Amino acid sequence: MTPSTEPTTVGPQTLDLDALSAPSETPLMDVLHEHLTERAAKETARYGRTLNDYERGWIEGLTAYAWWKDGTEYVGTCGTTKTQAIQRFIGEGHHA
């Protein structure tokens, strides 16, 4: 069986297996550091700060149970959009 050269999707992230299994020219720690730096930059741009692990898990769980209608992603049964729910969660800050 020949390994695929296509990136592998793991949850919301895409993992480049070739980069992780490359010889010493791309050590695993360098790849991990680059990924975490990129993630922190995206979170800061989107939420104004870097999220902690609890917040990331909460958003992933919310995303898992979200549903779509007419091109909008909703959560729950009261018409709250996923974006509204995340903004409220981040804004309240009880979990930080």
**Helices and strands: which structural class?**
alpha+beta
The percent range for strand residues is 15-25%
**Can you count the beta strands?**
5
Give the number of helices.
4
Radius of gyration: 17 Å
Spatial ordering of strands, largest sheet = 3-4-5
State the separation between the terminal residues, measured CA to CA: 46 Å
Could you characterize what this model shows?
The protein has helices at 17-20, 28-47, 53-64, 82-92; strands at 8-10, 13-15, 67-69, 72-75, 80-81. With 96 residues, it is of the alpha+beta class. The chain has a 3-stranded antiparallel sheet. A two-stranded antiparallel sheet has the order 1-2. The longest helix is centred in the middle third of the chain and has 20 residues, at 28-47. The chain is elongated and about 50 Å long. The chain starts with 7 loop residues before the first strand and ends with a helix.
Task: Summarize the helices and strands and which ones pair or pack.
Layout: E1 8-10, E2 13-15, H1 17-20, H2 28-47, H3 53-64, E3 67-69, E4 72-75, E5 80-81, H4 82-92
Antiparallel strand pairs: 1-2, 3-4, 4-5
Please give a quick description of this structure:
The protein is of the alpha+beta class and 96 residues long. It is 49% helix and 16% strand.
